[in-house]
Write a structure and sequence with these properties.
Elements lengths: L1 E5 L2 E4 L4 E8 L8 E6 L5 E7 L6 E3 L7 E6 L4 E6 L8 E8 L9 E4 L3 E6 L1
Parallel strand pairs: 2-11
Antiparallel strand pairs: 1-3, 3-8, 4-5, 4-9, 5-6, 7-8, 9-10, 9-11
Length: 121
């Protein structure tokens, strides 16, 4: 399985940005996918996850109401729409695949390379 994330960049507080993650591989279409992030000097943080058919999502409290995850099951690509961005959202964002179809993504079997999101105040 390969995960390829894109869409990071530098934005101002209050702006919006969309990340995408294209998943390829034999089993990726039947697994939950989602996002983690790591801010400078901090641990990895779960951002959100979406199940294989896109019907269920789960979010961290820190992003709930501002971030939305969606999934194109034909392209097997997920998107992270980030609105009302804050400086504390600055981090490297990683796409990940769950071992099963669990939106909490608590058993990761594949990680993609990160994409940097910087939010200036």
């Amino acid at each position: 399985v390969q995960l390829q994330a894109s869409g990071g960049g530098l934005v101002q507080a209050g702006d919006s940005l969309t990340l995408s993650c294209a998943a390829s591989g034999r089993s990726s279409s039947t697994h939950a996918l989602g996002w983690f992030r790591q801010a400078p000097g901090k641990d990895y943080e779960f951002v959100g996850g979406i199940n294989s058919n896109g019907a269920r999502t789960q979010y961290a409290n820190s992003v709930k109401g501002r971030f939305t995850i969606s999934r194109d099951t034909v392209k097997n690509t997920i998107y992270l729409q980030m609105n009302s961005l804050k400086p504390e959202d600055t981090a490297v964002y990683y796409c990940a695949q769950d071992q099963f179809d669990t939106t909490s993504l608590n058993r990761i079997d594949y990680w993609g390379p990160g994409t940097l999101v910087t939010v200036s105040s």
